[in-house]
Amino acid sequence: MEIYNFGKELIVEAGKFIETRMTQEFKVDSKSNPNDLVTDVDKETEQFLYTKILERFPEHRIIGEEGHGENINDTKGVIWIVDPIDGTLNFVHQGENFAISIGVFIDGTPYCGLVYDCMKQDLYHAKYGNGAFLNEQALAPAEDVPLNQSLIAINPKRILGEATRSPFFEIMAKSRSVRSYGSAALEFAMLARGQISALLFFKLYPWDYTGGAIITGELGYKTTDIYGEELPLLSTTSVISGNPKIHSEILEHFTDDKILHDFHDKFHDL
Ligand code: IPD
Ligand code: CA
Ligand code: CA
Fold it and tell me: I need a labelling partner for 44 at 20 to 30 A (CA). Which of 69, 180, 257, 259 fits?
């Protein structure tokens, strides 16, 4: 409970840090390509989280998007997986619709998940086995909404250039409609609230999904890769998340060996 309560206070504190810092000037750089942005605020917020966690728990380890824990290659002990700003493009272009995401694991087992939308002051949180909450309010369990009555979230940039036989096209066509909000953590939060019924990603990093996957897991939503396997903590992966019905409906589209092989070559390039 100590780690969970500390995590909740810390993520709100980090949110206040972002809110103040974003009113001042900050630098925007690109990383792997001109559209992959990072700002001083991402880096400083990760440093803020890193320092505070280690001050309180010197023996814990931290993996962050902006460089912390690059040398961690086992899951022993307590590991915090941190995305200081999930939705950096939204942060830069919109000044909202981004979140801090944290997943905490003990010996590789989920311990707690936290997603904080600091501009709305919405804290999504769950301690493994204890249900999931939005601020003080318990969130409702997953309902078995089928694909044809569902809004689903997909990153459209990843779909561009795909052959039309891609299962993603079939899934999108079958759904009621498709949305893209630009923050995987917030899309998990919307799933937790029942605002969308599934999300699909070709390639996410552990800091994008661990917080949200723990929270939605508490509500009965299922999250795996496109092979139906449990998600890794130390590498990139495809991600399918939704209520058990829609999850298996979506997974049925990923049975063609050739398609799976192509996806693997393209998106599991670690
Ligand atoms: C991104 C967001 C986005 C997802 C991208 C991620 P970032 O994270 O989660 O929704 O589609 O794949 O990289 O870079 O804003 O932390
Ligand atoms: Ca992210
Ligand atoms: Ca990020």
Answer: 180
